[in-house]
Design brief:
The complex is a heterodimer of chains A (100) and B (246).
Chain A lengths: L1 H15 L7 H13 L20 H15 L5 H6 L3 H10 L5
Helix pairs in contact in A: 2-3
Chain B lengths: L5 E4 L5 H12 L3 E6 L6 H11 L3 E5 L5 H14 L5 E4 L14 H27 L4 E6 L2 H5 L5 H21 L4 E8 L5 H4 L3 H9 L9 H12 L10 E4 L6
Parallel strand pairs in B: 1-2, 1-4, 2-3, 4-5, 5-6, 6-7
Classes of the chains: A mainly alpha (100), B alpha/beta (246).
Chain lengths: 100, 246
């Protein structure tokens, strides 16, 4: 059991740089790229929900789950619905005391 | 069968929920018992930890309150990063005739049985999506499948569980999350202990297997649906009713 906890934490750290010097903006872009399966260069402020085939409703739930995990928070359902672009995601995360 | 997995069971302090909690623990799952009444699962979890060699943790919350559900899942994520099994068992009964069902009772039953199930599923699914695996099991009822006199409100809430289950199964299948429902028949719990011996006999007479069901009968079905033995089973409503006719 303890081993599994350690493994999961390690995986999250590898994925999203938790506990490292990776800044939160970079972490958020990494999460977007990972969850949507797109190149990180495509993760720009203008990126919006449903603007690319990769960010559909199915991917949105994976993105929300990845943000929960990456920032160790639990987004409110209203925020899940409102999170329609990278820049809005950043604004939402500020409510959860994530600094950018 | 479930060694190393983490399972949440709501309404776990008595009846079917308690049997499910114990059965999953006995088969190796680390269990998180959910209940409204503070302290009501402390002893059970302590005993299960000792006897089964697993991690058993109580989390107290009211499933009908979204804020409490969120807070509960914040606690759960501190226990484990990966939730493998979620059993939505918390529920309340109402036996009013249609003309006598009070609005506050209708709202209360639906708040717990239906809205509570959805709230828990929302957060459980998010934890499961991260790892692209999981099993959600919702407790419906034979009343939700067939209806019964004096059960308009309860039946309605349990019928809703079937729609929720089938819809969520379709929505979550891409993430390899299975969603199934169990529809128990006449089960020997506190909920039915108050009925008269005559009605009890009538009910048993309507059961093809000719006995009242036990919470363990339901728990064993839950164990199957929670396990990898049911890896290709999703969107199903499994009757655990001994062939009961309603």
């Amino acid at each position: 059991m303890a081993q599994r906890e350690v493994d999961q934490t390690a995986i999250a750290q590898m994925r999203y740089g938790q506990g490292t010097s990776m800044d939160n903006n970079d972490r958020l872009r990494t999460i977007f790229a990972d969850a949507l399966g797109i190149d990180k260069d495509l993760v720009v402020d203008e990126l919006e929900y449903n603007s690319i085939p990769e960010w559909d409703s199915v991917a949105h739930m994976a993105l929300v789950a990845a943000i929960d995990e990456g920032f160790e928070i639990m987004l409110d359902t209203d925020d899940v619905i409102d999170m329609s672009s990278l820049s809005i995601a950043r604004d939402i995360l500020k409510k959860y005391d994530v600094e950018f | 069968m479930l060694t190393g997995k983490y399972a949440l069971v709501t309404g776990a302090n008595r009846g079917i929920g308690l049997a499910i909690l114990k059965t999953l623990a006995q088969h190796g799952a680390n269990v998180i018992g959910g209940a409204r009444r503070e302290g009501s699962l402390d002893d059970v979890c302590s005993e299960l930890s000792d006897s089964c060699g697993i991690e058993a943790t109580p989390v107290y919350f009211d499933v009908s309150q979204p804020d409490q559900v969120k807070a509960a899942f914040q606690k759960i994520t501190r226990i484990t990063k990966q939730l493998d099994i979620a059993v939505n068992n918390a529920g309340i009964m109402d036996s009013s005739l249609l003309a006598m069902a009070r609005s506050e009772d209708i709202e209360s039953v639906f708040a717990t049985n239906v809205f509570g199930t959805i709230y828990v599923m929302q957060y459980a699914a998010r934890m499961m999506i991260r790892h692209k695996s999981g099993s959600i099991i919702n407790l419906s009822s034979i009343m939700g499948v067939n209806g019964a006199e004096g059960q308009v409100v309860y039946s309605g809430s349990k019928a809703a569980i079937i729609g929720i289950t089938r819809s969520a199964a379709k929505e979550l299948a891409p993430y390899q999350i299975r969603v199934n429902a169990i529809a128990p028949g006449f089960i020997d719990t506190d909920m039915v202990s108050s009925i008269s011996e005559e009605i009890r006999r009538e009910r048993v007479d309507s059961i093809k297997i000719q006995r009242i069901g036990t919470p363990e009968d339901v728990a064993n079905c839950t164990l199957f649906l929670a396990s990898d033995n049911a890896a290709y089973v999703t969107g199903q409503v499994v009757g655990v009713d001994g062939g009961m006719l309603v």
